[in-house]
Amino acid sequence: MKKKKIDQSIRSDGAENFVRAFLMIEYGIITYGASRNMPGYDLIACDHKHKNICKISVKYRSAADADGFHFSKQNDYQFAVAIVGNKGSVGNYQIGTTIENTNLPESFKAQVFVFPKNFVLQNLNKRRVLSNPLKPKTPKKFLRYENNWYRIIKYISKK
User: Fold this and answer.
1) 116 phi and psi, to 5 degrees?
2) Is 155 exposed, middle or buried (0-12, 13-18, 19+ CB in 10 A)?
3) Domains of the chain with CATH codes
4) Whole-angstrom Cα distance, residue 157 to residue 159?
5) Where are the alpha helices (DSSP H) in 28-159?
6) 46 with 29: CB under 8 angstroms?
7) In 10 A of CB 106, how many CB atoms?
8) Tens-digit pLDDT profile for residues 111-142
9) What are phi and psi of 17, to 5 degrees?
10) What confidence tens digit (pLDDT) does each residue in 76-87 have?
């Protein structure tokens, strides 16, 4: 495998694991990975009290200046969690692709956006790409979905 493809695979798996861990640690929601053969979603979150499930599609981009998130025609999810990492340029600092070539004064956290499916479908372009919320030309309404975990919690805990 090429180095770039391996790196992307590691970071994509990391994004899924981040969402799983966050939902379980912060909210006590059982979350597990879907089979790789399930097109359209990556995770399943379960509320054992109300016996509800929520399918989640996880998307990852490496940097604030990266292109948007590609969605297939399979729309079998209720929420898309889009994570924008901090590789690339952040302010006056260049963040490297490895620990050895990263020159940081302090750590930079990735930014997380939780979009409901209907928002994603309404905002896909003709190539089925949802804009990166951090790009300057993306409408400001995208920023309202940053750290919007409560939408998943509300959905999953409905009676």
Assistant:
1) -70, 155
2) middle
3) 3-156 (3.40.1350.10)
4) 6
5) 117-123, 150-156
6) yes
7) 5
8) 999 999 999 999 999 999 999 998 889 999 99
9) -65, -35
10) 999 999 999 876
